[in-house]
């Protein structure tokens, strides 16, 4: 049974907290994730976070994945000697419409690292839609599971400058235009 790493504020919001616990989520802080790994749990993370959510355009065929400043999961894998399994879902951005809050509310929520938008699916609820809103064509989700990336446990608490440089090199290869966002067509 794996645990989802979730934004920490979720556990302070009534309703969201209960849903988070129901689906097996835990705070995505390093301390909590490290403890879950020590207990034997697998961890599922979606590293793009709020920035990726705000960049999502359901009317576009281009999906943007945010990797800039999202290397904590690699560091945790190094510290614990855990393999990384890349997973990607195509089509999920069409299951809900993104609704932006007014700018003052977005700025306020940003101080708490919370999204300045919400998602509306079928019947204006959080239930995902099964047809695209503009064309009414059925949504098919495509899951791609990459080959596990073996990660050797570090002998020291910190990665060496060479290891940090290698991680940056890999991320830079993915981020062709240097904006911290990887884009690709669905």
UniProtKB/TrEMBL annotation:
GO cellular component: a single term: endoplasmic reticulum membrane
**Where is the major localization of this protein?**
endoplasmic reticulum
Q: Where is the signal peptide?
A: 1-18
Query: What keywords are assigned to this protein?
Result: Acyltransferase, Endoplasmic reticulum, Glycerol metabolism, Lipid biosynthesis, Lipid metabolism, Membrane, Signal, Transferase, Transmembrane, Transmembrane helix
InterPro entries this protein is in?
DAGAT, EF-hand-dom_pair, EF_hand_dom
Single GO MF descriptor: calcium ion binding
SUPFAM superfamilies on file: EF-hand
Q: Looking at its record, which EC class is this enzyme? A: transferase
Family assignment from sequence similarity: Belongs to the diacylglycerol acyltransferase family.
Identify this protein by name: diacylglycerol O-acyltransferase
